[in-house]
Every structure is written in structure tokens, then in C-alpha cells.
Amino acid sequence: MTFKRDAVAVAGYAQSPIVRHFDRTLGAVALDTAKQAITDAGLRVDQIDGFTSSALFPTAGAHAMQDGVSMVTSNWLAEHLGVNPTYVSGFQGVGQLPGSVMLAVNAIASGAATHVLVHRALHNPAGSYHGNPMQEASGSNQWTAPQGFFGPLAMIGMTYNEYLQRYGACRESMAAVLVEARKNGARIPWSYWHDRPLTADEYLAAPLVSEPICRYDADIPVDGVACFVLTSAERARDLPNKPVYVRGFGMGAPTRRRLPLHWPLDDLYEVGTETARRLWTTSGLGPGDLDVPQLYDGFSPFVYFWLEVLGLCPVGEAHRLVKDGGIDSDSRTGLPVLSGGGALGNGRMHGVPQMLECYLQLSGRAGERQREKATVGLACHSSPHFGGAIVYGADV
Amino acid sequence: MPGRPLPVADDLSASFWAAAAEHRLVIARCFRCNELTHPPDLVCPHCHHTDPQFRFEPVSGSGTVCSWTVLHQSFLPGFDDDLPLLLVDVRLDEGDVRLIGRLLGGADAALRAGSRVTVTFEDLAPGVAIPAFALVPEA
């Protein structure tokens, strides 16, 4: 099995503002963003013949799932753009954005589609995001909800505490992650946190929700849409923007049956290590080759887990690395793992900030934030044992 | 005021909940490969047999704390009076079986990874009890 490196490229993009609540429907914003991305790629709407995405609305609450309102599927987007595409697909797994990108790569490389629109539309409903009035816990919920173990904050609290206990880490070290994410998010005009950095003291003063997780350890729910146009590398070279190639990928799935939302640290490292190995095998690269490693940070401990499984630091050492300034993207020696602000510095955009930062830096379109050397990027999403990542490359 | 959500037994879980109602912890064992599984699944997750004919066997209920979290906010009804709520992630002595439940006796219990616990039960409604844990005093 040999992955076809650099066969498919990102040719353009668009992103809506990231806000707490749009004053229009999510679908209307998605349509406008899609049209902008297609124009940005130097194409017309009628040239888009493929659509891929994940429409997951990542709430534990009892919110209505309504296409065009609380989520946007590829089918909905194509229909409302007036397109009859040759290929439409939705990604079912976790690691929604890398998964959707790989559906597009496969469609293009196989000839099933020529120009594919990959989109992600995230919605913040009115009321509590995860609150659920459940009285009967059936199906998988029966094993944990009656005990009160419910929703992703309890999930990550359990895993993060296992890390703290095992490696003798403390909550204080994580302040460096939040300060870094919010510093970079504050510089980004489209971020929900634009012009609003966070201090370590503010972070440490925040109330705990699910110990050792406080409110700032989780990304803030937002309304936002991002679209990317992918095409073959050959066609991309004739389009206006510098192509950013899909060079490799890695996905993972837990191999042990566990209670719902139970992520033991050993499972995470075991499968995450294999996810990382797949990244290096497909791309022919290693951790030392990454100019723009964008780690997923929907919950702050994911930054530790990705740093360690990727081999950017030894297992159990990420808390020391970040505390010692090791992820300061303004320092010559820091790993710029949150240079795009991540989810903590932008809002709950589910892998978009990571992919967008790779695209902007590698295509030379990052403006004032442009980094000097940016030819290899990595965009991670979700947990290393339950999600995925894409290695992006650009011509030197 | 709505109470806490109650477990709804199904074909796979009926034996587990029937035993729990009598304050007995039972775990599913595959007839073919003899491995324990929790929660039970349609297929044995160890040998992948599609008709595992699980036997629900009593276990000691003794285990080791792998992790814990203290909830200061609940996203479910019926817990607000119990906050802060301490939940423990327990590895049973019988093997790689992990359960999550409340540690009864207060959220400020002196815990460490490796603390020994034993199963106990919370009675939620007539005929409905769920597993929880209690610390075993260190010798």
C-alpha cells in the first residue's frame, strides 16, 4: 500500500466570521461561504462536481438536528447551490475534517469528481450546549448517565486527571497552552477571541467544571463555516493560488470496548502512536520535518497527547515542554503548534483552525502572520486515538 | 423536580440490571473465548463471535482507581443537590474491565491512582440500583 502523495491540492478557501450566534441561518452563511471559496479558487459554481463534509453537531444535548439550521450536509449545500454533483459523501467517523478531506482526495484521485468542495458548518444553539433533560438512559447511555458520567467535559476530566496523576503534572502548566492559543487567536481578525488574549492568572482563577478541567480548557461554542476547494495537483497549478498538497494522512480508532465517553490514557497512547506512524509512513516525513504542526485543542489536554504521540516530545513530558516555553510560536525555538490559535483561540470550529493555518501558511497567504519557513504542515483533529490528521506540503 | 435518569434494561443488559437491583455486580463472560466484557456488546469484542451467549457472572467488586473527576456542574437533571460529585474510573481485579461510578462518602476523599475500592450500590428507585464505589481503608 503506497499513498499517492501530492496528487490532490487545496486550491482555495473561505471562512465566515466566528461568532456566538449568526443573525442569519447557518445554511445561508454556508452557501455564501461556499461561493466565496469557489471564487477564491478561481472557479465557477458550475465547475464544482464533488461535495464532502461531516455534518456532526457535537452536542450531548437534546437539540433538534435540522439540515440547514443546526447542521449543513453536503447534499443540502449542493442542492441549494443548484448543483447536481457527480459525487457527494459524508464522513461518519471522529476526526471529521481530516475524514472529509480524505473523502475529497479519494474522489479526485479516482476520477469520481474534478473539483470538490469540503465544508464544515458549526452551530451554537440557544440555551445549554450539552444540557439534556434525559429521564430514561437507554442504549449506551444506560451504563454511565445514571451515575452522572455524561458529556465531553466529564470524559476529558477523567482522562486529563489520569495524565496528571501518572506524570506528576499540575494544572498550572496548562496555563501556557491557553495563553499561547489566546495570544494567537487575539491576532486573528475572524476569531471569536480577536483582541482578547488570556492571562495565566485569569486561566487559573476560572471555576472548575469537571476537575481538573475549567471552562477555559474547552473551546467556546460558536456559529461558523469554513469551505475549502480541492482539486488535482495538476489542475491546481493552473489556478490562481499556490497549491497546498495533501502529502499524507493518519486516522485511528480505539480497539478496546469501553464505556461510552471513557478514554483511558493507555488506549489513547496505544492507538495514537499508530495514528502517528501512519502519518509518517504515508507522507515519508517525520516529526522533525513539520514547519507548521497544528495540534487539535478542542480540550486543552489534547495538545499534550498530540505532542507526545507525534514524538514532538517524550511521553509524559508535554506538560514540562509547554511550561518551559516550548510551544511559543514567537520564539525561534518554540514549536508553533497553536500558531493558528486553534479551537481555544478561535472557537469550536472542529479542526478548521488547524487546517486553515496550514493552508494559509503553506500557500503564503497568512499576511502579517506569515511564517518564514512554511512548506510542511500538519492539521490534527480530535483525540489521537479517535480522530485523524493530514500532512500538507507545498512546493519549496 | 425531575430525578436522575434511570437505566433502561434491554435484551443485552437485563441480567446486569436485575442483579444490580439485588446489589450484586455481575459481568458478561463470552461462552466461546471466556473473556469478560463490559458493557456487553452484540458481538464479543475479544473473539468477535456473533453469538457470545454471555453468562453474567458475579465478580468480587474489588478494584483499583485509575482516575477520577469531580463534577461541579451536571448536564443531566437530578444531580444538582449532589454537587460536587466525585466519579471514579475503576479497574476491577478480574481483568481489564473498567467501571465508572460515584465514590460515595464525599467529594474530598483522599484519592490517588491505585487507591483500592469496593463496589456498593445507589438505590435510585424501587427495583433500580446502580453500581457505585467506596474506598477501602488503607492498611
Model description:
The complex is a heterodimer of chains A (about 400) and B (about 140). Chain A is an alpha/beta fold. Chain A has one domain (about 10-125, about 220-395): 3-Layer(aba) Sandwich (Peroxisomal Thiolase, Chain A, domain 1), CATH 3.40.47. Chain A has twelve helices and twelve strands. Chain A has helices at about 25-40, 75-80, 95-110, 150-165, 175-185, 200-205, 235, 265-285, 300-310, 320-325, 340-345, 350-360, and strands at about 10-15, 50-55, 85-90, 115-120, 135, 210, 215, 225-230, 245-250, 290-295, 375-380, 390-395. In chain A, the strands form two sheets. Chain A has a nine-stranded mixed sheet with strand order 3-2-4-8-1-9-12-11-10, sandwiched between helices. In chain A, strands 6-7 form a two-stranded antiparallel ribbon. In chain A, a hairpin with a 2-residue loop joins strand 6 (about 210) and strand 7. Chain B is mostly beta strands and about 140 residues long. Chain B has two domains: about 10-60, no CATH class; about 60-140. Chain B is about 5% helix and about 40% strand. Chain B is built from one helix and nine strands; from the N terminus they run βαββββββββ. Chain B has one helix spanning about 15-20; strands spanning about 5, 25-30, 35, 55-60, 60-70, 85-90, 100, 115-125, 130-135. In chain B, the strands form two sheets. In chain B, strands 7-6-5-8-9 form a five-stranded antiparallel sheet, with helices on one face. In chain B, strands 3-2-4 form a three-stranded antiparallel sheet, with helices on one face. In chain B, strand 6 (about 85-90) and strand 7 (about 100) form a beta hairpin. The radius of gyration of chain B is 16 Å and the shape is globular.
